[in-house]
């Protein structure tokens, strides 16, 4: 009887050991699968970070940033302004999308405020001739840029009539010269040198300062509407869609196909 008990115990011990070994192998297989999945995700995230984002309104001498570079700059701006990186980049991308829609223009002369796009179309409301044109000439000359060879936004028809609004916004963040003047000194102080609205880092910082003053800390939706200058025209809702995509990528390193189109499609 003792021998039978010992045999039963030995068999039970073998079954337990076999179950433990099977569990260990299953755990190892899952861990290996997780490692492989993580490796794939990390590779995909690295590839996404390396993709170039196209920012309209940037001169040919300013290289386009990768998404990873834009995120790093936006995180630095967050430390300066408190504005969330995903929200800041979403604003810049939205402004760039608007710039692509209306085209890129150049001042035709330094007196009228007329501008002409790359296709040759003339805009008589190219830039406000008294409020913004003198400042634009001053800004470009101080930065060593030719005012007639530096891109600005074209006049955009927003459905309010041919005599409504002006073109003349500068750089990736699309500052009109009179608004840029309000932030150039603070931006220059934080940058440690003259701020340039056509440079990526400078424009990100100035946009962050403006969004800060627009109340981004309490309501990003309202801050986006104020940045655009009007609410309920679809601008701020699209900004928030881009913001959600960017935040998911910053937090989890993943990006859906729809988000990829929102962020990267020119």
Helix share of residues? 55-70%
Specify the number of helices: 9
Major sheet summary line: 4 strands, antiparallel
Radius of gyration: 27 Å
Distance between the termini: 83 Å
How do the strands line up in the largest sheet? 3-2-1-4
Any idea what the shape is?
elongated
User: Strand-and-helix sequence, N→C?
Assistant: HHHEEEHEHHHHH
Mean pLDDT figure: 90
Notable characteristics:
4-stranded antiparallel β-sheet, mainly alpha, 266 residues, 4 strands
In short:
This protein is mostly helical and 266 residues long. 59% of the residues lie in helices and 4% in strands. The chain has nine helices and four strands.
Verbal overview:
The chain has about 270 residues and is mainly alpha-helical. The protein has helices spanning about 1-50, 65-80, 85-100, 135-140, 175-190, 200-215, 220-230, 235-250, 255-265, and strands at about 105, 115, 120-125, 150-155. It has a four-stranded antiparallel beta sheet with strand order 3-2-1-4. A hairpin with a 7-residue loop joins β1 and β2. α2 (about 65-80) crosses α6 and α8 crosses α9 (about 255-265). The longest helix has about 50 residues, at about 1-50. The protein is elongated, with a radius of gyration of 27 Å. The model has no long low-confidence stretch (mean pLDDT about 90).
């Amino acid at each position: 009887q003792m021998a039978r008990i010992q045999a039963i115990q030995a068999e039970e011990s073998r079954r337990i050991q076999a179950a433990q070994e099977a569990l260990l192998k299953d755990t190892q297989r899952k861990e290996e699968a997780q490692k492989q999945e993580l490796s794939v995700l990390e590779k995909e995230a690295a590839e996404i970070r390396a993709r170039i984002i196209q920012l309209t309104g940037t001169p040919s001498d300013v290289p386009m940033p990768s998404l990873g570079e834009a995120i790093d700059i936006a995180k630095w701006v967050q430390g300066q302004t408190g504005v969330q990186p995903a929200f800041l980049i979403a604003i810049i991308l939205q402004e760039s999308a608007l710039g692509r829609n209306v085209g890129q223009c150049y001042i035709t002369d330094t007196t009228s405020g007329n501008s002409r796009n790359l296709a040759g179309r003339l805009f008589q409301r190219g830039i406000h001739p008294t409020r913004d044109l003198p400042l634009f000439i001053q800004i470009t000359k101080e930065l060593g840029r030719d005012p007639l060879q530096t891109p600005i936004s074209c006049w955009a028809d927003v459905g309010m009539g041919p005599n409504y609004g002006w073109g003349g916004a500068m750089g990736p963040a699309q500052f009109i010269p009179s608004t840029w003047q309000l932030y150039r000194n603070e931006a220059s102080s934080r940058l440690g040198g003259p701020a340039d609205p056509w440079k990526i880092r400078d424009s990100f910082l100035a946009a962050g300062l403006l969004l800060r003053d627009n109340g981004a800390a309490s309501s990003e939706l309202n801050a986006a509407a104020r940045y655009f200058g009007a609410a309920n025209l679809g601008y701020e809702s699209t900004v928030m869609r881009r913001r959600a995509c960017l935040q998911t990528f910053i937090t989890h390193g993943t990006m859906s196909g729809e988000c990829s189109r929102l962020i990267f499609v020119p």
